[in-house]
């Protein structure tokens, strides 16, 4: 009995500890971080991780930087953020407070999380040229982390902020020559330490930013204290107008756009998969995909290497255009070869459905390739009209049948057919022979509807309904929602879960926008800048 009581007591204590931990994690919110601008400051230090003297010193330095119009910096020091990721918290803080000018977007958020031993920089769009990721990382590693590793948060923050200001400072050429010399001397001293660290830790640095970042940071080469000027002296370094264009980043981006276009507008598999009972006049296989995605690249290599054709920037788009047009001509020939077989069976309805699915987006092909597909598109529309509306012959008396109008048609349809016609999934035509009163009913699937086949009654009457968000998406995880379906024929219901993608780094949700607006209006000091998603993080 005593053993059971002891076990229950241990379980109770475990549950209490777990509940306290969950409560502590749930209590953290970016909205609860004190906004230093409410007290005309730039440093938020709610857990007193650094001294008041250091806070006052940094506030003074950042105020001068802000008044110069160069940048607006928010510094936040927190003991813990629970299970949150420091990079996500820094990004959310930027969206909430919006430091930096609204036009220049020259804001910066510096976040220190003590229990995770992590320092994060989040830069605005306007500072990505002056403070690229590589420079942020250098400042953290050379100026801040050595002090942090000795539990000197005051010293590390002071040195790091001073280094940031040195990078961003714009000297006054007319009145501060002496100050410029001092600033240059200090900046050069800092950069020597930065470079020495990078050389000593080049392997880790290269793993994070690549070897190009070690060699030079050309994006901020205009900042004299940190970078030397470069001026080419040999005009032979520049290629003349008769040399070949290089296959570089622009070519890769163009090829990615081409692959995206082919995937969305050429590789069409969804329509055929939804309609299993119809004849497929054309289906994509692996060889077709190799043709679409690989042929332009292979052809360019052959032209350049075997036939010594000079590569120009317009050559690849021309090859891509010809490749897609050749593929579409081949596709059209295959469709008509299979359609000719269907015509032999005199199955007009089956041929109409197959042709309609196979050429569903032929109008889009005609837009990009007017010749030869614009005349073909017009001919295709006339052919479909003939297949559907040319009078049928009665099977009994061989007399010509007539199509019924809407009111008479509805009387001839079954309840299931009436429901399908009403929801727009299938459009029905009813033909009647007047002499013998024989009827023929043909249904034509709508290709632009999202109505599905009901698993209960097998009618195409399962209509999608309202959506409900179960968990909103955040910058660190996807959201989840549920969509309800109802069959308009048998009232069968279905629930389908779907994922909500993470918000993009440049966008801001409604809650963050409203919070940042209220914060800005209450203090009137943050400038309304936007985060560019750049920056860097380091651990110690």
From TrEMBL:
UniProt key word Membrane: yes
Name listed for the protein in its UniProt record: TPM domain-containing protein
Region (Disordered): 501-540
Record has Coiled coil as a keyword: no
Segments crossing the lipid bilayer: 247-269, 290-311, 362-379
Gene3D superfamilies: 3.10.310.50
Short name of any one Pfam family annotated for the protein: TPM_phosphatase
Originating organism: Chitinophaga rhizophila
Domain (TPM): residue spans on this chain: 43-166
PANTHER family found in the cross-reference section: UPF0603 PROTEIN YGCG
Biased composition (Low complexity): 504-524
Keywords of the record: Membrane, Transmembrane, Transmembrane helix
Skewed-composition ranges (Gly residues): 525-540
